[in-house]
Amino acid sequence: MEDRINRDFIRDIVKEDLASGKHESITTRFPPEPNGYLHIGHAASICLNFGIAEENDSATCNLRFDDTNPSKENTEFVEAIKEDIKWLGFNWDEREYFASDYFEKLYGFAVTLIEKGKAYVDSQNQEEIRENRGTLTHPGNDSPYRSRSVQENIALLKEMRAGKHEPGSHVLRAKIDMSSPNLNMRDPVMYRILDTPHHRTGNTWPIYPMYDFAHGLSDSIEEVTHSLCTMEYEDHRPLYDWFINELKVFKSRQIEFGKIFLSHTILSKRNLTKLVENNLVTGWNDPRMPTISGMRRLGYSAHSIREFCQRVSITRRWNTAEIELLEHCLREDLNKKAHRALAVLKPLKLVIENYPENQVEYLEASNNPQDDSSGIRKIPFSRELYIEQDDFMETPPKRFFRLTPGREVRLRYGYFITCKEVIKDPVTNDIMEIRCTYDPDTRGGNAPDGRKVKSTIHWVSANHAIDAEVRLYERLCLDPEPDISDGKNLESVLNPNSLEVINSAKLEPSLKESTSGNPIQFERLGYFCLDSEDSKDKDNLVFNRTVSLRDSWAKTQSSN
RNA sequence: UGGGGAUUCGUCUAGCGGUAGGACAACAGACUCUGAAUCUGUAAGCAUAGGUUCGAUUCCUAUAUCCCCAGCCA
Questions:
Q1: CATH classification at residue A48
Q2: CB contact at 8 A, A128 and A180
Q3: Which tens digit of pLDDT belongs to each residue from A92-120?
Q4: What's the Å distance between residue A495 CA and nucleotide B9 C1'?
């Protein structure tokens, strides 16, 4: 899979442009607005833009923050975005830009357009502008201010820049065509007055450029050859080209592709912001969030996210990838990388009656059976163990292979044991303890006489186990495509069981040395990792379940 | 009802006039010291209707369905 070559219609265009000599080198850009954290949908765009740069010797990708709306943007987001892109494994070297770096140049472009008679200051209020824009089916009306003289426009714009006018009193508009069937061409606003300080330019600018004006010209300033964006900007392309053509500047080319959605989650920035602000999650990096930082904290590997983006590919279609594909990419990667460990989430005491009291043996276990170079470790074994509650049933259903009264099973890397007795609480009738015997000849897990057992279960030594908190995460939404249309209560689409906290899991002692960022497979349970936020103290271990192992037993159970 | 875009197995995707292929998911089986992994197999698709052609998923014409656009957001 790793050596599969990326191919899609955009990479085809890039290749052709290089082959035909249209461009000697290629420049793309990833243009986030720093008003939130990056999510899995952005990862697709990052992989596309930075991927093209990586794949072509003569290509580079700029990181440019589209910071033209100071009321929503801040440096926390800038820093988080940079960290996420780096973590995904991409780099932009010194090519870190901000649209706000170009405010002076952009202002110059605006003046040029006025001088050409292609822009004017409109003094209608917001309401009037909206009314005169017309509708989808009816053309708009020209503004009464549309024919102001060049001198007057220049003077007004200077005053706007000097802070002499109130927000909302004037805007600068391109003079295009109020009857265009494309609403974007009906004299789009280029500048508005805002008295909000900007996170980088402070109070130096009382006016801020709008996206359509700023974005394409920023591309042009950077000599971006291929400006890749999502389909909803297709209607904006005539405007993108209009600014570039009127100003006779470097011709960047905008190419649109379909956005990628993910099932069982929410991806719009507006709703993610709401989850954070309403404390429906613990923050932008809550492990349930589809953000890069949330996924990182959950235990996703960068490689698996990049693999996912590659497999979903880039087309002009609107698509929703199933989360199962993402999880497959994750498991595939973690299966190769994760060290194994034994951990019991819901402990059930098990006593081996014929095992000597006070004896401790250290049994060898493979760190990763999928990887011979991963080495082995030793796990303490003793008379009293914990096993998983789910691994014992007094009256089992058909096809239950685990421990039941009278049955022999294998303890992973340990011995064969046979259940002799079940001890229950006399009052509640709850199972308190299982009494077993072991076969000393099966040390390490194999019987010299060649007899087989139907199952192998995991365990930890009661006296040696360490305690930990384990957080079992599930998908954010139960519905594959949650309905979050306006007016819907966001909370109602959230999975009420997206987090189950286990306070006293019992882990094999080697897990004491875990470090965050390293995946671990708790055998037979799933992939876990140390929580990067709440596990800083070695005496207070917190593990997150990244993803469970596939479980065909659970599946047959639930389908019955 | 204006403009723009999309439509291939459940999902994602290949196809560029000549047997519709892959991945994930599903199902069945083999194997197994993880009911994992691995392996094998099964089922499943060209939105519809016309036309052009020896031959159409591919070209043409309609139709249908879905998505985007009326921010001084990006």
A1: 3.40.50.620
A2: no
A3: 999 999 999 999 999 999 999 999 999 99
A4: 29
